[in-house]
Amino acid sequence: MTDLVTFGETMALFAARRTGPLRFARDFDLGLGGAESNVAIGVARLGHSVTWVGRVGADEFGDLIRATLLGEGVDTRAVADHEAPTGLMIKGRRTADLIDVSYYRRGSAGSRLAPADLDPALIRGARVLHVSAITPALSASAREATHHAVAAARSAGVLVSLDVNYRRALWSPEEAGRWLRDVIRDVDVLFATVPEGRLVTDVAEPVALAEALASLGPRHVLIKSGAEGALELSDGVVRHAEPYEVTEVDPVGAGDAFAAGWLADWLAGAEPAERLRTACAAGAFAVTSQGDWESLPRREDLSLLRRGGADISR
């Protein structure tokens, strides 16, 4: 038994230390990044059992991913692919305010995820299945794996969570919209920004958009608005949350942190307003340091943003 199961591609991440054109970078920090593994780490840090499933290359980067996730307390089911490498993500900072991310994932081990890599019994025994719309965009086999996983979860009454996480480099808005409209009826929790929600419906106003999306199936719809906060529509009730004021260092991974915070509090049985506050706090923590997941909070960290006042902890 595990509280949450998720799966997808996690890549080795090279982040340039120098601001400016990437061609002038000489030093890089090596880490890892992946939407689903970010959520896995975030939920684990907030006190729940998590299993991440994926394919990695039989290489040093694959070993790095396995070791890091295990070190974060995530049960890691990583298939070592001897025929394809671990994908790469390169992050540069063109200016102090502009981050540029490039992916080298075509034909990668992670893109070769297939239904056989997923254990239906593992999914049926979980409380939550979390997926992103990145995975079905990677390949036909990864798309099939996503459908199989959602079907297994639905058959067992497992909560299905979907973060749209649209990546224009992987598929067109039309392709993504068709897939989302097909799967959304089987989703219980939907995370999206306004532009992502509009892949499914033409509605632009956030509350009306949440209502339109909820009418297609999800019981809980979360609309993320970054520095403007977020709203949740659950069981017909709309709740708004103001953002936390923090100094943004690196915005990549904030949406994954938001999802992790919400799902962790759902697993903990928190009240709806508390779930939304925790989601916003986790998202705020995520942007305060370099890296996609490194600054994700633990339970004891959450109060640091809420108390205000002094910025020195002794």
UniProtKB/TrEMBL annotation:
<dbReference type="InterPro" id="IPR050306">
    <property type="entry name" value="PfkB_Carbo_kinase"/>
</dbReference>
<keyword id="KW-0808">Transferase</keyword>
<dbReference type="InterPro" id="IPR011611">
    <property type="entry name" value="PfkB_dom"/>
</dbReference>
<feature type="domain" description="Carbohydrate kinase PfkB">
    <location>
        <begin position="1"/>
        <end position="297"/>
    </location>
</feature>
<keyword id="KW-0067">ATP-binding</keyword>
<keyword id="KW-0418">Kinase</keyword>
<dbReference type="InterPro" id="IPR029056">
    <property type="entry name" value="Ribokinase-like"/>
</dbReference>
<comment type="similarity">
    <text>Belongs to the carbohydrate kinase PfkB family.</text>
</comment>
<protein>
    <submittedName>
        <fullName>Sugar kinase</fullName>
    </submittedName>
</protein>
<dbReference type="Pfam" id="PF00294">
    <property type="entry name" value="PfkB"/>
</dbReference>
<dbReference type="GO" id="GO:0016301">
    <property type="term" value="F:kinase activity"/>
</dbReference>
<keyword id="KW-0547">Nucleotide-binding</keyword>
